[in-house]
């Protein structure tokens, strides 16, 4: 469904009787091709997939749900999904830990960050998407402008993934250099 070509509000485009929330069409538009994976997580964490009312009023919880790509390719995945601030923080954080406790970059902090990202990636991404959707709703009263912003802010970034891969490669090479005392 392409909401930009309709004059209906998101609430009209996704009635509750269809088992979706008002946010789901906007989330799907923001996420893009992999939307079903994240929408399933969104429904599970908000209670939208249950017949009873959601206990947390449509706000997703930070539930654990494994994400292999985010575990294996932590930094590239964050930049690919346009979560730039998180990517930058997760590049700097292990390097800072390594300055405090030399060798921790290879043995502890990098692996710990990868595991945490693998466990919480879906929740973080859904929260990121909902934040951008909220921002679009506040900034734009015209539906077409709002949808254009959501499409631009969402989706994926191949250049971001390449940058993230290069950054993660440099971080790993620094960790190996420290480990091998080169």
What does this structure look like?
By secondary structure, this protein is mainly alpha-helical. 32% of the residues are buried. It is 68% helix and 0% strand.
- Helix-strand makeup class: mainly alpha
Which runs of at least 5 residues are low in confidence (pLDDT < 50)?
1-19, 51-57
Euclidean distance between termini CA atoms: 56 Å
Helical segment count: 9
Radius of gyration: 19 Å
What form results from the Cα inertia axes?
A: elongated
Beta-strand percentage range: under 5%
Largest pleated sheet: none
Mean pLDDT across the residues is 81
Kindly state the percentage of residues in helix: 55-70%
Topology:
Elements: H1 10-13, H2 24-31, H3 35-46, H4 68-72, H5 74-80, H6 84-100, H7 104-139, H8 143-153, H9 158-180
Helix pairs in contact: 2-3, 2-7, 2-8, 3-7, 5-6, 5-9, 6-7, 6-9, 7-8
